[in-house]
């Protein structure tokens, strides 16, 4: 299978499937000396994992990462405290599937001859034939996005060392759009949402606070712990619910929807659930903002940075990507859309940012602003016309499998992570080019 790698210097390759043994993230280009922990990766993974309330699929995958290679097993020499630090070799992260029981597999097997409209089921069968991994949509399931989030954790850490910060959130869901807020407010509330999820995640505390898994454990010991965890999943599912009103009062955010506009978040959730109860699904918009970007980063012509950001459409369910003013530029005049410049305190300042921080494929030094249009979840409870892909006869299909009423509430951490993969790769190329330029 081609198409499973991204990046030139920071190169990520992913593998696995929804109901295979698990998923794998393989990263080349990670610099040595970073302390990347499984706890840190899990803190990002829990933001997108299913089974976290009414807006997500009830599948109970814990998404516990295991770092398999790329870090030192112990201090390499006496007096050099480098155990568990990255060593510059490929970093490999495993994410085992723990909630893949026969009754769920059978639900897919009983409907796999009738592809889900809007999903990759039909096209993937045409490409891979009868051996296509169609159980849970295999590699075309949203489950694969866990691999992107895991890689994004590493990328974000590198970017932070260079003063670059990325924030994603739900801008619109089910036709309800958030109002305009300052970036400082957005970041404060997104950080609070992430803390809420960590503090109220039973596994986070069990695994890392209570020491069920530690960095000192060998891989087989971690796998033994996960085997024990698998037995506890049904019990944990019943215990994991927390008081939404209490959480909102404590953290100042909506516990289910990462939208910093709380009134809009309330309306979003209400509308998503109304549509869900009718048997249907909804879409939305995710906005990503990156700050601290140096000017001049990117490449021209075929490798323009805004073109690279267009690769965010590689995320399942994303059907459009816009940078800056995006589609709105068609209704603007040149004088309105141009980001006019002036000097302020000895530096170039811009009166606006309709370009989203990118012109000619190169960064201007302004904030990068990207929005992703997320389509409604293809799996719905309403009868739909389809075909039997084997007999090629007309058929009907209604969902019997686990599903999300909207995917936008779980796509935002994937968008944040993928943006980090794009920007860290571009930053590495930029720093290399600038270093060579100085030496010339």
Features:
16 strands, 440 residues, five-stranded antiparallel beta sheet, Chorismate synthase, AroC fold, alpha+beta, globular
CATH architecture: 4-Layer Sandwich
Instruction: Please state the structural category.
Output: alpha+beta
Strand order of the biggest β-sheet:
1-2-3-5-4
Can you say what the CATH homologous superfamily is?
Answer: Chorismate synthase AroC
What is the CA-CA span between the terminal residues? 42 Å
CATH class: Alpha Beta
Number of domains: 1
Fraction in helix: 25-40%
Outline type: globular
Stretches where pLDDT falls below 50 for ≥5 residues?
A: none
The sequence of SSEs as H and E is EEEHEEHHHEEHHHHHEHEHEEEEEEEH
The whole-angstrom Rg is 22 Å
Largest sheet: 5 strands, antiparallel
CATH topology: Chorismate synthase, AroC fold
**Number of β-strand runs:** 16
Question: What is the mean predicted local confidence, pLDDT?
Answer: 91
Give the DSSP E fraction (strand runs of 2 or more residues). Answer: 15-25%
Report the total helices. Answer: 12
């Amino acid at each position: 299978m081609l198409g499973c790698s991204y990046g030139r210097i920071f190169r990520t390759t992913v593998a696995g499937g929804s109901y295979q043994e698990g998923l794998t993230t393989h990263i080349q280009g990670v610099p040595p000396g970073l302390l990347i922990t499984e706890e840190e990766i899990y803190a990002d993974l829990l933001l997108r994992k299913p089974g976290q309330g009414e807006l997500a699929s009830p599948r109970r995958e814990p998404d516990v990462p295991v770092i398999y290679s790329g870090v030192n097993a112990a201090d390499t020499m006496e007096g050099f405290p480098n155990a568990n630090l990255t060593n510059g070799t490929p970093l490999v992260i495993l994410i085992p599937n723990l909630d893949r029981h026969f009754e769920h597999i059978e639900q897919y097997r009983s409907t796999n001859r009738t592809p889900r409209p809007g999903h990759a089921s039909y096209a993937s069968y045409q490409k891979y034939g009868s051996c296509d991994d169609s159980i849970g949509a295999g590699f075309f399931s949203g489950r694969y996005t866990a691999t992107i989030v895991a890689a994004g954790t590493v990328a974000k850490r590198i970017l932070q060392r260079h003063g670059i910060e990325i924030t994603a959130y739900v801008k619109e869901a089910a036709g309800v759009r958030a109002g305009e807020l300052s970036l400082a407010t957005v970041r404060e509330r997104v950080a609070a949402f992430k803390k809420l999820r960590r503090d109220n995640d039973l596994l986070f505390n069990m695994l890392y606070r209570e020491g069920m898994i530690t960095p000192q454990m060998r891989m087989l010991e971690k796998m033994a712990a996960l085997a024990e965890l698998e037995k506890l999943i049904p019990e944990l599912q019943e215990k994991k619910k927390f008081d939404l009103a209490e959480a909102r009062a404590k953290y100042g955010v909506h516990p289910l929807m990462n939208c910093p506009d709380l009134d809009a978040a309330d309306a979003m959730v209400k509308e998503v659930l109304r549509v869900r109860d009718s048997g249907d699904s909804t879409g939305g918009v995710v906005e990503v903002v990156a700050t601290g970007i140096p000017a001049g980063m990117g490449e021209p012509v075929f490798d323009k940075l805004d073109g690279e950001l267009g690769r965010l459409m590689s995320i399942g369910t994303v059907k459009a990507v816009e940078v800056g003013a995006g589609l709105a530029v068609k209704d603007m005049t040149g004088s309105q859309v141009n980001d006019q410049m002036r000097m302020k305190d000895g530096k170039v300042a811009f009166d606006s940012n309709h370009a989203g921080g990118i012109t000619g494929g190169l960064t201007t030094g302004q904030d990068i602003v990207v929005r992703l249009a997320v389509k409604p979840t293809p799996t719905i409870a309403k009868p739909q016309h389809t075909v039997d892909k084997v007999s090629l006869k007309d058929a009907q299909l209604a969902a019997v499998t686990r599903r999300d009423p909207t995917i936008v509430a779980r796509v935002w951490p994937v968008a944040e992570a993928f943006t980090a993969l794009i920007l860290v790769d571009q930053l590495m190329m930029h720093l290399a080019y600038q270093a060579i330029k100085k030496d010339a």
